[in-house]
Write a structure and sequence with these properties.
284 residues, mainly alpha, 11 helices, disordered N terminus, elongated, 54% helix, disordered C terminus, 3-stranded antiparallel sheet, 2 domains, two-stranded antiparallel ribbon
């Protein structure tokens, strides 16, 4: 899969998903990324203050009665632990929260691969390992200025990638689904019949599932001719992926194909939620 940049003067990146379908993601600029990392550092400082407060209480009760003789070693160990805690703060969140930290989640941002897929372990590890290069210089020995990362972003003005992103092959996007979208059901009999005959040959990508949902949302807002224009460009590979028998449906309506595919994914998600007893938003 290959990513190609849009020629328009905006912060968007076209991503070629499987089956030669192209979708767009809005890229996050330096300002909103700075605010997200600022929120994360504020939260990290709160965690450090809590730890230091606990250590101070422990020293009052003489748990560290040998601290004076071991002060140098103790400070060394403290900074090593601080280093590890800082790294794991970002690494664990991005790995288990699918490319998000608390700061990114608050501002609707997410890290994804250049091809639009979710991050793997190696990508999360590498981009956070190089975070320490991006954050230099460190003011006062503690507060990162992220000057190196900022310079890297300005050298890549279309994707705004810091060194960690360049090495790991990742980008930071504006995640549309920061809150649950309305549930859409389609009463058109042709759509329901088509959906009932669909069989998913292999799981759709995150990008495709999101695009189908966004198309379904727009059906009540766009002119029918515009819907046909959009759907006619992508419906054939989607029909193949969802196992539509062209002998049974020789005259497929492109819009109906996309809506039926969305209906199948929507029902699949509802069935999964019912089994797990959870209530989540639309597929990401």
């Amino acid at each position: 899969m290959k990513a190609t940049r849009s020629t328009a003067l905006d912060t968007s990146l076209q991503i070629a998903a499987p089956e030669y379908i192209v979708f767009e993601n809005r890229l996050a600029g330096p300002t909103i990324r700075f605010l997200a990392v600022l929120l994360d550092h504020i939260l990290f400082l709160v965690i450090i203050f809590i730890i230091v407060f606990i250590l101070i209480l422990a020293s009052i009760f003489n748990f560290f009665k040998y601290m004076e003789t071991l002060s140098g070693a103790a400070m060394f160990v403290f900074f090593i632990l601080l280093f590890l805690l800082y790294w794991f703060y970002f690494f664990l969140q991005e790995y288990f929260m699918r490319g998000r930290t608390i700061g990114k989640l608050a501002l609707g941002l997410r890290v994804i691969s250049l091809d639009g897929t979710s991050l793997d372990f190696f990508q999360v590890f590498l981009r956070n390992l190089l975070r320490f290069a991006d954050m230099f210089p460190v003011e006062g020995g503690f507060f990162p200025a992220y000057t190196v990362g900022l310079c890297s972003m300005f050298l890549d003005p279309r994707a705004f990638r810091r060194l960690g992103d360049l090495a790991a092959g990742t980008i930071v996007i504006r995640d549309k689904r920061t809150r649950r979208q309305p549930e859409y059901q389609f009463e058109n009999r042709s759509v329901q019949t088509l959906a009932a005959d669909m069989q998913i040959k292999h799981p759709p990508s995150v990008v495709l599932a999101r695009a189908l949902h966004d198309f379904a949302v727009q059906t009540s807002r766009l002119h029918p001719q515009r819907l046909q224009e959009i759907a006619s460009r992508v419906y054939e590979p989607i029909a193949r992926q969802f196992g539509i028998n062209r002998e049974l449906y020789p005259d497929l309506d492109p819009v109906h194909v996309l809506l039926a595919a969305h209906t199948v994914l929507f029902q699949l998600e509802r069935d999964t939620e019912a089994r797990l007893g959870t209530h989540r938003g639309p597929a990401e």
